[in-house]
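User: Teach me something about this protein's shape.
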Amino acid sequence: MKAAIGPPHDETGWVAELKWDGIRTQLLTDGEHTVLRSSSGRDISAQFPEMADVGRSLGATAILDGELVVFEGDRPSFQRVLQRLNVDRPNRALIEANPAVYIVFDLLRLDDNPLIDLPYRTRRRVLDDFLSDGPTWRVPPFVEQGAAQLEALAKERDLEGIVLKRLDSVYKPGARSHDWRKIKVRPRQEFVVGGWLAGQGALEHKIGSLVVGVWHGDDLVVAGLAGSGLTDGERSRLAARFVVRSEPPFRAVPPLERRPTWVEPAVVVEVEFGDWPTDGMLRHPVYLGIREDKAAKDVVREVQPPGRTT
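Assistant: First, the predicted structure itself:
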């Protein structure tokens, strides 16, 4: 279940939680074996072997929903969790340098009992009774009638934002529902890469910026250029994944300062930005990393609340 972007509020019947900057993951366990699946359905168990402890600690068959994060101090670090995600079989040094924590915020099944048709308040009560914090997992608190204060805290600590959840909401697998609403401190989302422009000087023959877009129906629409934030390591990782094509994959291409190298629209990246006008291009975009856990076909412009442009 995915959250839609929405305005903050303190209405009754809702709770507010911090939005964790990591990899959305479902954990499936029979009490002995544990499987982790990203939001695209990809098995990422090998990337996070320490999460097997979560399944063993439960001693039951269960499906959990949450976020895999890696902390830098007291803040989740998106770059660090991507380092873990992008290494199929991490060595001990990488795991110890970037220890993952599973933030569990929902319980979808417990033994033979599916819980998705129960209201969120019930699912969370069962989760809180069933699972206590452990060495590689946490069950975070939520607040009622405190969304404004929690949003202020997220801004103060430079966190990603907050999520509001309707207490009587059932779990809708795969759906983006307004029963869950996310409020981001600084807007960001996934984009599909459809091409790249060479840089200048030392980057003359290397990736200088990415031409990124989102799907609108059957059309891939250009959203902007993202170059800030690219490192030599990321340029190499991106180049290894790109498959060059002769024609642009986009419905239409705005005038660009240089001729792009077009690629198959299969690579998904995360981009942070200052603003995204409805009829314009991304402003002040910053590349954050490759999203191996996201399927390109699912990347669309997230629903905007009335009166907002980001």
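Now, about its shape. The CA atoms of residues 18 and 162 lie 4 Å apart. DSSP finds six helices and 18 strands in the chain. If you'd like, I can walk through any region in more detail.
User: That's plenty for now, thanks!
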